[in-house]
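User: Can you fold this complex?
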Amino acid sequence: MSELDPQPPIRVRIAPSPTGDPHVGTAYIGLLNFLYARQRGGKFVLRIEDTDRARFVSDSEQMIFDALRWLDLAWDEGPDVGGPFGPYRQSERTEIYRSHVDLLLVSGHAYRSFETAEELDAMRKSQIAAKLPPRYNGAHRELSASQIAVYEAEGRPAVVRLKVPVEGETAFRDELRGAITFSHNNVDDQVLLKSDGFPTYHLANVVDDHLMQITDVIRAEEWISSTPKHVLLYKAFGWELPRFWHMPLLRNIDKSKISKRKNPVSLIYYRESGFLPQAMLNFLGLMGGGMAQPTEEEIVSKGINIKQGDIFSLPEMLEKFDFKRISLGGPVFDLTKLKWLNGEYLRALPPEQFFQALRATIFSDDYLRRIAPLVQTRIETLAQFGEMTDFFFKDDVMPAPEAFVPKARTLEETLAFAAEQLVLLEATPFTHDELEAALKQIGVDKQWPVKDNFMLLRAILTGKTASPPLLESLIVFGRARALDRMRRFIDTQKRLAATRK
RNA sequence: GUCCCCAUCGUUCAGUGGUUAGGACACCGCCCUUUCACGGCGGUAACACGGGUUCGAGUCCCGUUGGGGACACCA
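Assistant: Here's the predicted assembly.
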């Protein structure tokens, strides 16, 4: 580094949103940012993007912390550890955003807009119906002072929008792809400040990245199309651009963007299902490349098996991972390979550690202690514990159709109802009372007697028609795994039904 | 519909103008083994297509096709 041209210290961040279970995509981008920072002696920042109060989930933030710690991806600055650029929770920075919005309003880079959400929705729908690109029509771009006064007098809520230039284009550099250019007529007048006073991602993200002196924005590819908005914002503020690195999106088997409908995405699920964090990290490191294959020399000198070229630790990634090697095709998150990898790690464990891994997860005192009361009155010898509780310890459980299809229903109806149950369970806190109320409600709505309703769920969870109490079992088994079991059940049954036809 | 990104075995990653196109997972076969795994050995399997550039293209350029993403007062 020359004194005339000092490079600022590397600072990167991940910015997860606390809207549910910690996501495997967050872990992927987290790993990449972690590696990038550590390899360059930089700082890795964790910022919580909690500006969406409608989707906010209260314990989500803690789960994100836990999941990232489980993976050993330690951050240098964040809401829980502090740091010189805090606060690191966007909900605590609203004044900062407001003052920056004022700057844009004054400089003419933004304007207030008074349409209601309903009006905008109607406009969008008609545009889509007319096969037009859905875009804000700019109606309030040039409101006169008197018109604004009228709206304000009416007490109409306003948002603040970015005033994207009509003419021209915005270009930026993606470090992996080179120059990317967007014509301004394809860039919408994005809302920057919502009517509830909270910023949108676009504004908060740019303001925070600048104030937190982020040098490299390493995020998922889905952000490319909104990057011109961000670039326009940096320019409007007169700020220097960070480097942008857009990473390929993790995919489902059908190549669509990874989603909970088609793939387990919750890190809680992987932890509770007995995946080892090293295996998960290794697998994520495999996604998109980045690790050079072992050289001829390494194979000879270390005597390593060729196949071990796919097996590497976090320290090895720190040493060898190369961002310029990342391939841009979206990698399929292949559970089969993850399981193989996990098996490799399991087999490599010394026996005592393997035993401890079992005791820490599937046979933890805590888990057994919570299961025990569910069976105490139901068994006559302790050995019967196994028959009664097998489903708690299995990965795969699949009831026979006789066990889950009520006499008065068809298989199709039953699967459709199971899908409804799944949607419901996803949205319901896992407490006895809330689960019970929700399930009973859906039974009433869909005309499913409580007995059939609960029996279906029991069959899906336990594979049997007799079991410990259903809701308690569901809770002890755990939300992440229970939802996965339901999704697997529905998918498998649909597939079977399709092959029968 | 508009814009943007991407393109090597089923999946994943090698291959950076001259290769019998390589490894891993998966799959198949054989061996080991009381079973099942593990392990060992072997096998099937890919450069999407069409034009260029070049003595020579999986590698460079253009187009087509295909896939994906974005188009919210969500991130």
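The mean pLDDT of chain A is 93. Chain A has 21 helices and nine strands.
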